[in-house]
Amino acid sequence: MESRIGVITVSDSRSETNDLSGPTAVAVLRDLGFTDFEMRIVTDEVVEIQSAILDLIENCQMVFTTGGTGFSPRDVTPEATIPLLDKRADNLIELMRYRGLKHTPLAHLSRGVAGVVKGVLVVNLPGSPKAVRQNIEALSPLLKPILESLFGDGCSHGG
Which residues, in sequence order, are CB contacts of 159 under 8 Å at separation 6+? Predict the structure, then answer.
């Protein structure tokens, strides 16, 4: 698949040396056949999250965020993402939470959202590496059809 995937880790405490969620997302997506990634780490600030999403959608076909979806006062990833969405994809979040219940009764503690921003799929994932893996795996059969719907069979996108 010739698609560039953006991965944004949202955390006040993670850096390139101790981030596990972003690299987990890349590893799972690589296992699905994706090969081109752009990664970012931003703090739990609405403006930083929005800026990273808007920057990555210029050259990426999908953007996944990890972290900032819980209930703590600093968890603002959904609040940063929602105003950017042109189309919501609540169905994808429902699927992730449903599949998550097979692993933990806490799956509904993630408030993540998903949708399309300027023609690019954006999905909020929880911050736990295990949850990142499980959520991407839940979406895996849908990612190629979504890309084909958004960009056609070639999946090439210039921004």
Answer: 57, 58, 59
